[in-house]
Specification:
Layout: H1 2-31, E1 100-107, H2 108-111, H3 121-133, E2 138-147, H4 154-174, E3 182-186, H5 199-205, E4 207-215
Parallel strand pairs: 2-3
Antiparallel strand pairs: 1-4, 2-4
């Protein structure tokens, strides 16, 4: 009895293994459907190692064993793009430099003798003081404008006003001010600041206006 049971168990086990083997072989054959396979599910190859394809083979049925170049490669995720560098901070705006402007009016009677254009000692001291105040100034321009009262002809007063402005320029140049930064002009009697009918008014009209423009 025991012998028959043992024999039956072995037969059953053989059937199970055979079925499992058949399933594996069937699955392997399905995976290689585009190629000839033997009873064990192996691809049949030529003496040169080439796989035999079936008549219905298509590239879609290619397997790595036979046609590795036709097998679809797994998609490779693209490398992440390098992070863009943070934008450089905007440069600080340049400070606004406001030109310094100074206007000085010097009485012609201090600068010159009456009806003359040679500088008096008092006039030179006035101009020395102006030069000292310009120390450290990045000079842009100096404008010297001469004015007269109405005594004398208009043409004469025009020439006198020009000569007085030029006398101021020449003295400033002698103190180291670049000549090309100094401009002169004569207005004669055309721009009075007071009446010419009084002595005091005429004295105010005899003047040299000096405008200094620069930055520190």
């Amino acid at each position: 009895m025991m012998k028959n049971f043992g024999k039956s168990f072995l037969v059953a086990l053989a059937l199970v293994l055979s079925a499992a083997s058949g399933q594996v072989g069937a699955q392997a054959a399905a995976d290689k459907a585009g190629y000839l396979t033997d009873t064990r599910g192996f691809v049949v190859k030529s003496p040169f190692g080439m796989c035999w394809r079936t008549g219905y083979w298509t590239p879609a049925l290619a397997i790595a064993e036979c046609d590795p170049d036709l097998v679809k490669k797994p998609a490779v995720a693209p490398a992440p793009a390098p992070a863009e560098p943070a934008p450089a901070p905007a440069p600080a705006p340049a400070p606004v430099v406001v030109p310094e402007q100074q206007k000085v009016t010097l009485n012609a009677d201090v600068l010159f003798d009456f009806d003359k254009y040679a500088l008096r000692p008092e006039g030179r001291r006035e101009l020395d003081d102006l030069v000292s105040k310009m120390q450290g100034l990045n000079l842009e321009v100096i404008i010297a404008i001469g004015h007269t009262d109405s005594i004398g002809t208009e043409a004469y007063n025009q020439k006198l006003s020009v000569r007085r402005a030029e006398a101021v320029k020449n003295y400033l140049v002698s103190k180291g001010i670049p000549a090309d930064r100094i401009y002169t002009e004569g207005k004669g009697e055309t721009q009075p600041v007071a009446t010419n009918k009084t002595r005091e008014g005429r004295q105010k009209n005899r003047r040299v206006e000096i405008e200094v423009v620069g930055t520190r």
